[in-house]
């Protein structure tokens, strides 16, 4: 046996093996580096990759406080100035007003007409803001506002307007909060971009959608025996690929996603 | 007898109590420098302290203890198990400054009687104190998972309370704490919620002018306004209207309350 030849063959084979193993190592290392680079991509880039359109509007950091309020107890004396309405008060806190003569407005489905109607015909109507119009059910939902910001899906801060087949407004149901007070303690709010990021990380935002608007409002944080406490909340309205719209809510202090029991609110309404 | 809640909360606790002859600090849960600032803010000096009473060994109650004990040569009082538990946390405290204050006992300093009583908290042997002087009574109870009948017996009828009102249960449950921490806080050896504090209060206050300082508020799961509102409404549901004979006061994590007479 020629040991010199054997030795040479071994050296060549192991050299080739080393080169092969080193190339494997390099590939894996590069793959790992790429993964890290992907992990460091900004939220804008990730949204762009999923074709989710979004423009942040928060410029400076915002400080807000929590707000507390009590459920309004209706007094029929207060309602006297409202003409053409007969009132029923349930549990002292829910007002149902029926129009003796149904009211005709331009088009009940038209937000501007509804807002005008509410501000002139509803007790404290100017403190409510339109949230949604359900033309099929012939009703519009308004949320009461605090500091010009809506209180989302609170059964005690709701106004629902109903109209009939002839597009005449026939009645409304109303609950309200009063004695609204801001807490001394203020909190730095998360920017709207962070709310979008929270929703994206939970896979709630669907690809090929557009974030239409992000607004600040309030959601119920704590319910005490008489008082409720409200936390600043981002409402993220998203237009989906099929043209439908969805609303998502994120606590603007803690960044937690809030899921409202919308059906319960509607049942209460009915 | 006068007192000030120098600081209260999970970032540090310290309560100052004085009579004409003696001055005590209950817990020293902030840095030495911060403690000196707080003393200065009520126009008092740590040089005049007769002693520091320790409730338990958690860091928010003993953070500045070692430094202050060495710097001001102050006697430190704690029960045996608490001494063992905080041994490695407070550094070297000379033997002549170490004193035992056993559970459920009374020590007398001139006209002042200080009584210790057990609380339910996840420490080695936690206890709090009741101060009696000239028929007036001050109760400190800021770390307990619940208020037992035995505790109520000790604290009943005080003129002033520094009472734990740690969290709102809803905020805690919805908040960002890990489940294990939430469970600990809500347990019998954790902290008292706003509502539970109010219910306990309603059973121990008597119909006479009473000051209640809501203390040890959680930074993440409570707010001063919320605690006051919640305690006030729960008391009302128990038949006690705040402002009639019982008044609620805030405490702060960084700012001393006014030095008031019991």
Q: What's the short version?
A:
Chain A is of the alpha+beta class and 270 residues long. Chain A has five helices and 13 strands.
Layout of strands and helices, then pairs:
The complex is a heterodimer of chains A (270) and B (262).
Chain A: H1 3-39, H2 43-49, E1 63-71, E2 85-90, E3 94-104, H3 111-121, E4 128-134, E5 139-146, E6 149-150, E7 158-163, E8 168-174, E9 177-188, H4 192-201, E10 210-223, E11 227-239, E12 245-251, E13 257-258, H5 262-269
Antiparallel strand pairs in A: 1-9, 1-11, 2-3, 3-8, 4-5, 5-6, 5-7, 7-8, 10-11, 11-12, 12-13
Chain B: E1 2-7, E2 14-18, E3 23-26, H1 32-41, E4 51-53, H2 59-62, H3 65-72, E5 76-78, H4 80-86, E6 98-100, E7 106-109, E8 112-118, E9 127-133, E10 136-141, H5 149-155, E11 160-164, H6 169-174, H7 179-186, H8 194-204, E12 210-215, H9 224-237, E13 246-250, E14 260-261
Parallel strand pairs in B: 3-4, 4-5, 5-6, 10-11, 11-12, 12-13
Antiparallel strand pairs in B: 1-2, 1-14, 2-3, 7-8, 8-9, 9-10
Features:
heterodimer; A: about 270 residues; alpha+beta; 5 helices; about 25% helix; about 40% strand; elongated; B: about 260 residues; seven-stranded mixed sheet; 14 strands; globular
Describe it for me?
- The complex is a heterodimer of chains A (270) and B (262).
- With 270 residues, chain A is of the alpha+beta class.
- Chain A contains five helices and 13 strands.
- In chain A, strands 2, 3, 4, 5, 6, 7 and 8 form a seven-stranded antiparallel sheet that branches. In chain A, strands 1, 9, 10, 11, 12 and 13 form a six-stranded antiparallel sheet that branches.
- In chain A, a hairpin with a 3-residue loop joins strand 2 and strand 3.
- The model of chain A has no long low-confidence stretch (mean pLDDT 87).
- With 262 residues, chain B is α/β, with parallel strands linked by helices.
- Chain B has one domain: 4-Layer Sandwich (Metallo-beta-lactamase, Chain A).
- Chain B contains nine helices and 14 strands.
- In chain B, the strands form two sheets. A seven-stranded mixed sheet of chain B has the order 6-5-4-3-2-1-14. In chain B, strands 7-8-9-10-11-12-13 form a seven-stranded mixed sheet.
- In chain B, 49% of the residues are buried.
- The mean pLDDT of chain B is 95.
- The chains are: A alpha+beta (270), B alpha/beta (262).
- Chains A and B meet through strand 9 and strand 10 of A and helix 6 and helix 9 of B.
């Amino acid at each position: 046996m020629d040991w010199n030849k054997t030795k040479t063959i071994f050296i060549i084979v192991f050299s080739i093996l080393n080169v092969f193993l080193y190339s494997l190592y390099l590939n894996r290392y590069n793959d790992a580096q790429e993964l890290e680079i992907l992990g460091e991509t900004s939220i804008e880039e990730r949204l762009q990759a999923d074709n989710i359109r979004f423009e942040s509007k928060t410029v400076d950091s915002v400080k807000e406080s929590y707000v507390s309020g009590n459920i309004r107890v209706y007094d029929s004396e207060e309602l006297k100035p409202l003409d053409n309405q007969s009132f029923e008060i349930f549990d002292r806190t829910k007002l149902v007003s029926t129009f003796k003569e149904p009211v005709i407005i331009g088009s009940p489905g038209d937000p501007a007409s509804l807002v005008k109607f509410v501000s002139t015909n509803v007790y404290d109507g100017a403190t409510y803001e339109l949230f949604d119009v359900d033309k099929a059910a012939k009703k519009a939902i308004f949320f009461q506002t605090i500091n010009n910001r809506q209180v989302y899906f609170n059964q005690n801060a709701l106004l629902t307007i109903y109209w009939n087949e002839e597009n005449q407004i026939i009645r409304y149901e109303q609950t309200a909060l009063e004695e609204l007070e801001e807490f001394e303690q203020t909190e730095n709010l998360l920017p709207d971009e962070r709310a979008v990021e929270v929703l994206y990380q939970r896979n709630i935002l669907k690809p090929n959608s557009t974030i239409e608007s992000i607004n600040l409002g309030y959601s119920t944080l704590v319910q005490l025996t008489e008082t409720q406490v409200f936390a600043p909340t981002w409402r993220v309205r998203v237009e989906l690929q099929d043209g439908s719209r969805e609303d998502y809510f994120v606590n603007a202090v803690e960044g937690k996603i809030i899921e409202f029991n919308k059906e319960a609110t509607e049942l209460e309404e009915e | 007898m006068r007192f000030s809640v120098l600081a209260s909360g999970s970032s540090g606790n310290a309560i100052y109590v004085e009579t004409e002859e003696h001055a005590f600090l209950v817990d020293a849960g902030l840095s030495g420098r911060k403690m000196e600032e707080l003393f200065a803010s009520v126009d008092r000096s740590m040089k005049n302290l007769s002693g520091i009473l320790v409730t338990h060994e958690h860091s928010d109650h003993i953070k500045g203890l070692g430094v202050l004990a060495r710097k001001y040569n102050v006697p430190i009082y704690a029960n045996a198990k608490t001494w063992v538990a905080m041994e490695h946390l407070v550094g070297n405290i000379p033997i002549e400054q170490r004193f035992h204050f056993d559970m459920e006992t009374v020590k007398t300093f001139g006209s002042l009687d200080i009584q210790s009583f057990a609380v339910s908290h996840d420490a080695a042997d936690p206890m709090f104190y009741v101060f009696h002087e000239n028929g007036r009574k001050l109760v400190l109870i800021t770390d307990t998972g619940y208020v037992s009948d035995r505790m109520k017996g000790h604290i009943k009828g005080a003129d002033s309370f520094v009472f734990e009102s740690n969290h709102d249960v809803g905020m805690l449950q919805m908040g960002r704490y890990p489940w294990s921490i939430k469970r600990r806080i809500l347990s019998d050896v954790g902290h008292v919620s706003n509502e539970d504090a109010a219910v306990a209060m309603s059973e121990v206050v008597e119909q006479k002018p009473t000051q209640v300082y809501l203390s040890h508020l959680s930074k993440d799961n409570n707010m001063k306004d919320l605690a006051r509102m919640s305690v006030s409404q729960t008391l009302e549901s128990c038949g006690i209207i705040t402002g009639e004979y019982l008044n609620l006061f805030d405490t702060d994590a960084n700012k001393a309350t006014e030095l008031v007479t019991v």
